[in-house]
Amino acid sequence: MKILVCIKQVPDMESRFKPGAGGTWYDESDLAWRMNEYDEYAVEQAVQLREQLGESAELTVLSIGPDRVGEAIKKALAMGCDRGVHVQDDAPATRDPWQIAGIIAAYAKDQGYDLIFTGMQSQDRGSAQVGVTVAEDLGYACATTLVGFAFADGTVTAKRELEGGIKGVVKLATPALVTCQLGLNVPRYPTLPNIMKAKKKEIQAIPVAELLKEEPLAATVSFHPPARKGGGIVLEGEVGALADQLVGILKEKTAILR
Amino acid sequence: MKTLLIGEYREGKLLDSTYELLGFAGQLGAETAMLLVGSDSQLPACGGTLYLADASQCGEYNPDLHKQLILDAVQKENPDYVVFLHSSYGWDLAPRVAAKLRVAQVSEVIGLAEGGFEVGCCNAKMRRTVKPATPKAVITIQAGAFAPQQPGGNPSVQKVTASVMSNVTFTGYEPAEAKDVDLTRAEVIVTAGRGVGKKENVPVIAALAKALGGELGASRPVVDAGWVEHSHQVGTTGQTVSPKLYIACGVSGAIQHLAGMKKSDFIVAINKDKDAPIGEVADVLVVADVLQFVPALTAKL
Question: Start and end of every Electron transfer flavoprotein alpha/beta-subunit N-terminal domain (chain A) (predicted)?
Answer without folding.
Answer: 23-215
